[in-house]
Amino acid sequence: MITETFEYHAPEDVQAAVAILAEHGPEAKVLAGGHSLVPLMRLRLATPSVIVDLNRIPQLRGITTENGSITIGAMTTHAAIEHSAELKAMLPVLPAAAALIGDPMVRNRGTIGGSLVHADPAGDWPAVALALDAQLQLVGSHGETTVRADDFFVDLLTSAVEPDEILTNITIPIPTGRVGVSYQKFAHPASGYAVTGVAAMVMLDDADACIESRIAITGAGATAVRATESEAMLRGTDLNGGSIDRAAESAVSGIDFLGDIYASEEYREQLVRVYTKRSLLAAFRAATSGHGAEAAKTI
Amino acid sequence: MKLTGNYTMKAPRAVVFDTLMSVDVLRSCLPGVEKFEHTGDGRYETRLRAGLAGVKGEFAGTITLRDPVPPVSYTLAMDGNFSGGFVSGVGSIRLEDLGAQTRVEYSGDAQVSGPLASVGQRLMAPAAKMVVGKFFRCMEAQIESRTNSASR
Ligand SMILES: Cc1cc2nc3c(=O)[nH]c(=O)nc-3n(C[C@H](O)[C@H](O)[C@H](O)COP(=O)(O)OP(=O)(O)OC[C@H]3O[C@@H](n4cnc5c(N)ncnc54)[C@H](O)[C@@H]3O)c2cc1C
Predict the structure, then answer these.
(1) Residue B55: which of A46, A120, A193 has the nearest Cβ?
(2) What is the ipTM of this complex?
(3) I want to staple A198 with a disulfide (CB 3.0 to 4.6 A). Which of A189, A205, A275, B60 is the partner?
(4) A91 and A195 both lie in a single domain
(5) CB B56 to CB A47 under 8 A?
(6) Is B98 on the interface with A (CB under 8 A)?
(7) pTM above 0.90, yes or no
(8) Is residue A157 domain-shared with residue A189, that is, in the same domain?
(9) What fold, for B2-151?
């Protein structure tokens, strides 16, 4: 089908884009890679009367590192992250996780910003952003704000971005010390979306005891969430012992599980146990081997 | 599409049941109510319009509350047009007496057709669950404000 008619704007800087959004209110929609928005428009399920295309704003693309953190422009594609030599060296879980998204066409067009703002319950970036303590910069007609990933995913398909705001950058502190990060997902065989995906970061002391960890789960409930109870259980423990098993077991608590024809609630619950364990073990291996990151998917 | 779940409210069963049957509460807690009119026998002519992620969900049809067994159970049926397609569903609602609290258990099945059902299939059940969750939270707030004003 062909979309409803809409007014098309392709501003060349962020301020101009924000001004158009402020003028038109919720009737206006931002266009990034279009991989989530355009199918909805073609079926006329979404009928925005104004489209603000961000593809001609160069400041929204690219990867920079300074002061111990990495900043990724919201319009950076999954593929650009997947192939970034800088990221492979600095924070290899990002390219590794990007490579697990959908297929090459989706990765060539889809953007990290679009994926975070859309807040799909089965999206990969939300889990990775939570595990890495990402900060999200928003620009709106009232100015700039920074939202922590922990406060960004509000509900099903609902992020903290207001209709008159644009996500501009994602900033991630580069973990230092004996740190390993992993993202492991059980992918839907058709779309590649996470039926369940678990991102884990572990920081170890010299005796392999866990100083700090962050565990984030996507695909299981309405939004990606952190498993804070499991993180607390790991603190101070030797990860060679049984603590990873116990943490994986408690990762399911507090999640209101989704169920569908492909994976029931009980099945997703079991996936969370299994993938939390795998992700923690992989992060632990990465930390002890000095490789920094691992990612894998099972279909 | 099957939908099951439960929600525990901090109110005794009789109060919860009455609230669930109250037209005013339904009118203010259903999402995006544009019309909700009793036409007899527990049937309500309804028009709802709500959105999520830029997608407009529109329902126009009848909602029927039937077979009430106060304060234990009733059946809810929904039939009508839904965002360019159709929806027809029946759910049973049971109230479990937990003393000062009540657990509302719901279990339903709906046939949904149209474009939203085809592309949105993966997200339809979670969206329905979210609507139900919001509905119960709204109801609970209404009960709270009623008991607060009554005890004043
Ligand atoms: C076949 C297929 C398979 C896929 N598989 C996966 C997968 O395995 N894992 C995964 O995570 N995802 C997957 N996706 C989703 C894909 O990653 C999309 O790219 C992503 O969800 C949305 O990004 P986008 O850039 O295409 O955004 P768009 O579709 O352009 O926009 C999505 C929404 O976000 C808003 N938006 C976008 N950017 C901004 C911004 N900077 N500021 C404010 N609002 C903004 C838009 O207004 C819109 O509401 C898949 C998609 C398809 C079609």
Answers:
(1) A46
(2) 0.81
(3) A275
(4) no
(5) yes
(6) no
(7) yes
(8) no
(9) Alpha-D-Glucose-1,6-Bisphosphate; Chain A, domain 4 (3.30.530)
